[in-house]
Amino acid sequence: MLWLARIAVAVLGVSSSVSSVDLSKCWATTGNPPTLPNANEAIVNTDYRGLYVSLNKNQAQLEPYYTPAVLPSTAPPTSSILFATSILNDAAGPQAQLNRQRLLRFIVSHQINALSFYDLYSVLADRKLTGAMQTFMTQARQCGVTSISAIGGSQVEFASIGTYMSNSTLAQAHKFDMLLTKIEYWNAGSGYSVDSFALLLKNIRSGSVSKSLINLPIASYLGWFIDPNGKISGEQAIANVFIPLLDRVYLHSYYGTDPSQAYGYTTTRLTVVQNA
């Protein structure tokens, strides 16, 4: 079944029933957020709520809504968390653990039940960072997260994810539940065309990238149904090439500062996806 959503606000609501979660283990890690209503109750029957998380050990990325104790002097004067090195790399000091705790508290207080991990290629190449990522995955699941997606932007990156998933001793909590593409084929210079994007999806489906990925659902973040190479014309014709290969679609729907306009901004593309 194809699920349609957007990065920040769902453009087509899809409900999912979330199994009961014992949050007592979550509080052991994060402490009890004092402003969270029903803090000791499980999250049940919530909509799909996702969050992208950057794990790149070399890239300092600021995201809104978090407040760490220490920020670099170059940080903007807004509530932000530095998460990259500071979430996984405990060698950076106690700030790493503090940031993990605050991120988990944010996840619970906003009833987020799905995470998508960016920048896995560098993390999976580092044994220590991989272990730290797995610890965070366990903690996130204890805090109500039921789905963790692995983001990839090339066949090499998905092969790396496949190698990780092929480990027969990998604990269930440390396995990825879904794959998510980070390929903006509609942008000239992305390195992908409509056809090569579809070919990558077919290679993942067939197991030629990695047999360990065959049974994982595939999601894609999509912007526009255009072919910068000009080989395929018409939104519907372009969507028909790869939409049938996907299980879930996230449509780009950034529309100024008024989220009430987001649905109208995506209506045409939603129809295209539904007809593919």
TrEMBL record:
Keywords: Signal. Residues 1-20 form the signal peptide. It comes from the Eukaryota. This is GH18 domain-containing protein. It comes from Aphanomyces euteiches. The lineage of its organism: Eukaryota, Sar, Stramenopiles, Oomycota, Saprolegniomycetes.
